[in-house]
Design a protein that fits this description.
single chain, 4 helices, 34% strand
């Protein structure tokens, strides 16, 4: 796990850490599109350590909200970033060059079908991931808050 000057711990997965580094170094010019999929950088507060942790994730849009699927590659356990944001829903995002605070929550049972369609169309592998695990893959809604440059703070 890398610890940049800002004290945020990046993903311990080497290819994800490389993706994050390129994203940061170029202000999102490299890394915002990963293949043909849009990605963002999500920073959460560790639920046990209290430290800030950053990862890169494919995202979708629903009006002014950002959508994530906590797929963990179809594993039978939730990814750490999802467990972190359920504990502390105040997160930070970088989408291309834009950095801002957001509030995260899991989509309700009523919201999920429509939002799942958005994400499954964007990244069809989510359907395969869901079929391969007994857990329901959480769909996360991120509602933007203030720009970090305008005084928003990662929490």
């Amino acid at each position: 796990m890398t610890a940049p000057e800002d004290g945020i711990l990046d993903s311990p997965t080497p290819w994800v850490a490389d993706h994050i580094r390129a994203y940061l170094e170029t202000g999102g010019a490299e890394g915002h599109l990963y293949g043909r999929w849009p990605t963002l950088l999500l920073t959460t507060r560790g639920r046990r350590s209290g430290r800030l942790r950053r990862t890169a994730l494919i995202y979708g849009r629903d009006r002014d909200r950002y959508l994530l699927v906590a797929s963990n590659g179809g594993a039978d356990r939730h990814p750490a970033w999802y467990l972190n944001l359920t504990e502390t829903p105040a997160v930070s995002l970088q989408v291309a060059a834009d950095r801002f605070a957001a509030t995260a929550r899991t989509a309700t049972a009523e919201e999920r079908p429509r939002l799942w369609e958005i994400m499954a169309e964007l990244f069809p592998q989510y359907v395969e991931y869901q079929a391969g695990t007994a857990r329901e893959l959480p769909l996360v809604i991120l509602a933007p808050g203030r720009s970090l440059e305008a005084g928003g703070q990662p929490r």
